[in-house]
Fold Glycosyltransferase family 39 protein.
Amino acid sequence: MNTIKTLIKNNKAISWVLGFQLFRLILLPFMGLMPQDAYYYLYGQNLSLSYFDHPGMIGYILRIFTEIFGKSIFTIKFADFIITSLTILSFYKLASYFLSKQKLQRAFILLASTIFISILSFNSTPDVPLLLFWTLSLICLYKAIFENKKIFWILGGLAMGLAFDSKYTALLLQIGLIAFLLFSNKYRKLLLSPWFWLCLLISVAATFPVWYWNYQNEFASFAFQSSERTSSISEFKISPNYFFGAIGHQMFLLLPVLFLIFITFTFKYLKRIVTKFKFPKAKTLFLLAFFVPTFVGFFALTPIYWVKLNWMMPSYITGIIIAGMFISKRLLKIQVIFSIVFHLLVSLQIIFYLVPIKSDDTWVGWKELAIETEKLQDKYTDTFIFSEDNYKTSACLNFFMDEKVYAQNIIGLPALHFDYLGDDLSTLKGQNAIFIDSDKRFKDKNKLGKINPLLAQYFNNVTELEPIIVKINGKESRKFWIFYCTDYQPKK
């Protein structure tokens, strides 16, 4: 309540933040279903202690919201919007511990103006709950360390555990905490405090569901998240495209002004630490401890590994607070202008779909595909549906269709959490199927003209049908190749 009262007093900042959030809320009904929305909705409809590619927090949240408000695209987007709005409010509380009133307002506007907040408000990913619990963890740890309130060691441990139950990168919270205490002369003694160790113990205990699910499933999730990436990094192949791609992504998510401020203060503090072995004051060191490992750590990998645009998001929380210490009124105005222009362009794309997206990572065409698929099933009766693109088409069709839709495990390929839904594929033996394959680079209306060799291994006969062409605003925008497959023979 005190945070809300303080916000109301800061009329200028709250006006800008409410303006951005109102704009995002107005856009929600125009947003179609993203494949990630559908996939994590599938999580929630198949409740489990954890899941193959991520912990389950985003799935639990979507399950709660759809149980309360009903199943709809808007409900899923509204869940993301509400959780992200709570993150914004929590950020304000956290930032108030470090900044004066004027700098606090600037940091608040900086956060609300970013594109990454819009992405979290529109798209269901594990980062949505991760950012909330990350911010709550930092609030608790601040109070435990700087205000010596013992209860917050317990709450901090719980919040860190729930952050891990959202996404594995939350492990950087414990790393940041230990790093801060190690390099802080004043608070290093807390490393010997039983409250510190109780905090870590509680954070581990709160992650028990994730560990137990992995134990039950031969640690499949941990292996998936680590083995492939470790192998790629160990090859150590320099790729400038990865590096410059990461810069482009970060400039888009943060907008150029904020990104350049990040680079400037990172260089300033690290230079001082490395060359003079001079650490900043305790509160600034605290912020850096939860910024540097994530932001600098992932950036260091970009020359040799494709770092996804959302991996650095947790670092933005304390990074923006530090940026609030330095940004001038003039630079803030430029940031807001950039933001308004970018958001207007994004809104035009969302509403009118002006530029076709040559990817399955889009919010258009999925419902239309489901309608056409149901028509196909009316013509080719007693068929099951499956697709081969990890999860996207299968998850989206599962959302819109009453009948179960299968993934690429039908033809023996790994299919993420579809492999762990408990489906007995042997019950489909002898049945016919419709196989759907997205043409991501839609150039013409022709058939594919060839058959996936795996289909021939699992079906007696495969015939290509006319592709499904989806029109958006009267324009042919998406294309799906269709195959009729007979007599399914699953491998033992």
